[in-house]
Write a structure and sequence with these properties.
The chain is mainly beta. The chain has a single domain, classed as Nuclear Transport Factor 2, Chain: A, CATH 3.10.450.50. It is built from one helix and six strands; from the N terminus they run E-E-H-E-E-E-E. It has a six-stranded mixed β-sheet, covered by helices on one side. A hairpin with a 3-residue loop joins strand 1 and strand 2.
């Protein structure tokens, strides 16, 4: 489902091109993390579909601290039926 030039961008200009890279990076930050989805908005034209996903994060950092209610917005770009980008 990922385009050959797929790119994920996270705060701090952290960029990944493969899901394994994201998983490895996340292991250094979190013991656990989860998303609660609140809303999805989508827009389409002849070239792409863009989906915005709104919600909150919860989990546990590697330092043992619990967190919850951290708002997030993800922007997904879909081109030719494949995910081209995710911006957090």
């Amino acid at each position: 489902m990922l385009a050959h030039d797929f790119e994920m961008t996270f705060p701090g200009a952290v960029v990944f091109h493969e899901l394994k890279q994201l998983i490895d990076w996340s292991r250094s930050r979190y013991k656990s993390i989860g998303k609660t989805f609140e809303k999805f908005d989508d827009m389409s034209n002849e070239e792409e579909t863009v989906i915005y996903c709104f919600g909150t994060l919860s989990g546990q950092g590697n330092d043992g601290r619990l967190f919850e209610g951290i708002r997030f917005v993800d922007r997904f770009q879909i081109v030719d039926g494949k995910l081209k980008s995710q911006r957090v």
